[in-house]
Amino acid sequence: MKNTTISKSEQLDFRGILAKPEGSHILIAALFLFFSLLVIPFADIPNVCGIYIVCCAVLYYALSRSFFAMLYYAVPAFLLYSFGAFLPGSPDPLMLPTVFLALLVGGGCGAFVLIHFHDPKKHLYLLLLPILAYTAATLITGDPVRGLLTLLPTALAIVAAVCVLLYMRRTDATVLIAVALAAVLAIAGLVTLGVTGGFVGNPIVTLADTVRASITAFLTEARSLYTEMGMRLSLSDVDISNTAALLVNLLPGLFLCACSITAFLVWRTLLQLMVAFRTLPKLPFRLAAFSMSKTSAVVFLLFYIVALFANSAEATLFGTVCQNVALVLEPGLALIGFASIFSRGGARSCLSYVLVFGLLFILWTNPATGVALAAFFGAFHILAAQFLPQDNSNKGDR
């Protein structure tokens, strides 16, 4: 890896090139920040969710001017929409996508507003937005604890703004934002359990049993629906039980994986705002480039392969831990793998065409396997760039 340290003078030079945005741009960012803060306590209301999702779609299209770029946000939102069916209590399926977009838009817009106000007195004015959102949510719902949900995007906005002002690399910033998100979600979960009396017994075991029962019920109902339509779904009771147990075992990895993807998109949203609102003359490579170390590539390959052997006969504790660690690293490596395969310049070889169409086919038929293969390709790409001789000297970090 290249030396990633940066001097104080370089940080000050970067802050010096930040142009002051127009008043209308600040107003747009502030309005979306306030809307994002306020919508989370009301994410169980379908009409509110629908209006907010449409507003987010308009904002992202205005920033990117590309429907393809919107897939970065649409695909995770759709997966969360599908995952909502497994949640206990049968919540509205738009709830999870709404909270996801609120974290992205609130974190990105909040950070955009914060980085352009270095005066501490102006920061005090900015604090009025979370206070107003909390007050409004508390008055409407009559629940002060539920009103605290308005503060979730604020933590992401503060961390992202600090990362920009310190001129941090995109990878480091993504990790810090992911840690902040995991922390605030864990705190929110503990507060919710404390208020609802969920600390009776072991809350982790209770959560695991609830999710397992929800997955089992969903798959059993799906099998019955297929049978009624005259289609046979090859899922036995044992298969359903094993699938539910597997997904429960992967909950820690899935949670951290979701946090890392959300953090990556928060940073992307912030960069899009800075470019679209012309606060940067040119997006610095340091902020835009995403890279992962050879250590992470080796750890992923090792743990993924070990998990395959350890869980070949039945799920073991060691294999489950390895599988969760590999799952956390998989999204970043898959992103590098996709970029390496689909972003090749110049003439393509026959092998590259085989890789492209083969990966697309696997993604269509089995998305989880396709993402895992892309992560393997990304890991091998990183290791090849580190250890194999290069024909030119331009080895930029990916």
| Low-pLDDT sequence parts | 393-398
The count of β-strands is 0
Tell me, rounded to a whole number, the average pLDDT. Answer: 83
Helix content: over 70%
Total helical segments: 18
Order of helices and strands: HHHHHHHHHHHHHHHHHH
Global shape: globular
Structural class: mainly alpha
- What is the distance, rounded to the nearest whole angstrom, between the alpha carbons of the first and last residues? 11 Å
Radius of gyration from the CA trace? 23 Å
Largest sheet: none
What fraction strand?
Answer: under 5%
Describe the structure.
This protein is an all-alpha fold and 398 residues long. It has 18 helices and no strands. The termini are close together. The model is unreliable at 393-398 (pLDDT under 50).
Q: What's the topology here?
A:
Blueprint: H1 8-16, H2 23-39, H3 46-64, H4 71-83, H5 95-115, H6 120-126, H7 128-141, H8 144-147, H9 152-165, H10 170-196, H11 203-228, H12 237-249, H13 251-276, H14 285-288, H15 294-310, H16 317-342, H17 350-365, H18 367-387
Helix pairs in contact: 2-5, 2-7, 3-5, 4-5, 5-9, 5-13, 9-10, 10-13, 11-12, 13-16, 15-16, 15-18, 16-18, 17-18
